[in-house]
Amino acid sequence: MVAFGTSAPELFVSVKAAFNGVPDLAIGNVVGSNIANIGLILGLVAMIMPIPTRNRTVWFDWTIMIVATVLLMFFAYNGTIGFLEGIVFLVSLGLYLIWSVFKARRKSQSSEEVFLSADISIWKALFWVLVSVVGLYYGAEWLVRGATTLALSWGVSDRIIGISVVAFGTSVPELATSMMALYRKENDISVGNIIGSNIFNIWAVLGVTAVISPLQVNDKEMLSQDLLISIGFAVLLLLFMLPLSRGVLSRWKGAILFLLYILYIYILFA
Prior knowledge:
Layout lengths: L1 H5 L1 H12 L3 H26 L2 E3 L4 H19 L3 E2 L1 H25 L2 H7 L5 H33 L3 H26 L3 H26 L2 E2 L4 H21 L5 E3 L1 H19 L1
Antiparallel strand pairs: 1-4, 2-3
Helix pairs in contact: 2-3, 2-7, 2-8, 2-9, 3-8, 3-9, 3-10, 3-11, 4-9, 4-10, 5-9, 7-8, 8-9
């Protein structure tokens, strides 16, 4: 649920970009957000305070994240992510969610306790959801319009703007959520939020976007470079979490992730 909420900006921005005829911005937003989530967000959080990663279920979620990324590469290879590919993404997401809920219920009843202790009424919650949706709609409109203007004025491609500027903007909720989770010592949410958000970005965001409006992959560097770098960051994250029974994302590991992200952004604009 946390990952779904923090991925909402990516969904609105990608759908808006697709409707505005800038599909590279839509796909770049997702791929760039996935890279930023690991390199920038986890890197910064780990540099502030080491993150214990001792939940063995992270391995399964990490595997799903890799599967989702490879599936995206496969579907994008022919230059189009169409309606059928979007349906496959959404069905895959549904199966993943069903498994996650089943796993959580078997593990404990802690989630039930959280709902019972909620101190906000259903009407107030619905009100804030409605306000947030309206804000996301207009925020996506302004962000896509501003990003397209930046691409034209800087003389760079929509892909680069999507991967850098737009992806950073839509990744801010992940940063805020991870920092708050770390402050409350809910370390599983901190790492799980990032991995879950990356899964949602591909299967939910691109799935919904492709069903509504097919996405053309115009910039081939998205396949030959950016998606491979996304997988590279994911592999590095797994190596840094080993052994899963007592792993820790220490400050020096966070610094490496962060510096690699800065280097990647520098190379994009170089």
